[in-house]
């Protein structure tokens, strides 16, 4: 779809975004993780526009983004461990799933029928925008539902430019992966989605075990099996590249037959996981444009940020019969 959205930077972008949000419109904004599609979390029509623009199923909850702990406490109830994590990692790429405060101004569509609410405090442009707007913003990734999350304004414009009025250009996002999502239940810390904050970092602050794996059902954004998917099929952990495949490489050593790949992009030639995370979505999008029917992916360490990278790749490679969610 041809882009018709305005693409603005700086003060002009801030004023335009505030004006559109006040009208109940949605705007694409940069965060430190990926670009988000933001709307007033207290306005049902604005929240519905997010779902409409993304083609996102309404049983998939959204994250409410805040500018302060005080704003978060107006609609969410913090247990002691969640508060400790917020005080350490906010602003930053950590989302907390908390008990919703009954009677809050958050529109029910944001929670997708759950009695909990996902909350994050971003850095940068998003933080300033929310602070000036004075209300929380619901903001999933600014992409069509189930597809690759955008890490640049150009990627947003190509995908959603015909459905929204403004893309704020803040350059490439520094983290490049969505936020880590955790939930405290019965005093136990559960990892619902790995992301920009690693498991060891969480354990170091929480002082308790991090439990992986959850009960069936969608408890937070980004939990559907098929997600973050390019148009091409994705084949993981390859030792050999097949004819006609594109190659998503990692580190200094190449898979057998790499020289015959349709296209090659390396997440990090030196094997740095932070660099790999920041390049993941942009490299997947570029290889998807190569014309290859399959993107072969070399093995990537599961340590640290590698857990989140492998999580996104596994969802990108999953069967797509029921693919219909976004982060």
From TrEMBL:
Q: Does the keyword Cytoplasm apply?
A: yes
Q: Which GO terms describe its biological process?
A: regulation of translational fidelity; tRNA processing
What GO molecular-function term can you cite, just one? L-threonylcarbamoyladenylate synthase
User: Could you tell me what reaction this enzyme catalyses?
Assistant: L-threonine + hydrogencarbonate + ATP = L-threonylcarbamoyladenylate + diphosphate + H2O
Gene Ontology cellular-component terms for this entry are: cytoplasm
Keywords annotated in UniProt: ATP-binding, Cytoplasm, Nucleotide-binding, Nucleotidyltransferase, Transferase, tRNA processing
Specify the protein name.
Threonylcarbamoyl-AMP synthase
Matching entries from NCBIfam families are given as: L-threonylcarbamoyladenylate synthase (TIGR00057)
Where along the chain is ATP bound?
56, 60, 116, 141, 149, 193, 228
Compartments where located? Cytoplasm
- Matching InterPro entries: DHBP_synth_RibB-like_a/b_dom, Sua5-like_dom, Sua5/YwlC_C, Sua5_C, T(6)A37_SUA5, TC-AMP_synthase_SUA5
Source organism (scientific name): Borborobacter arsenicus
Instruction: State where L-threonine binds.
Output: 33, 65, 120, 139, 179
Per the UniProt record, which EC number(s) apply here? 2.7.7.87
Q: What does this protein do?
A: Required for the formation of a threonylcarbamoyl group on adenosine at position 37 (t(6)A37) in tRNAs that read codons beginning with adenine.
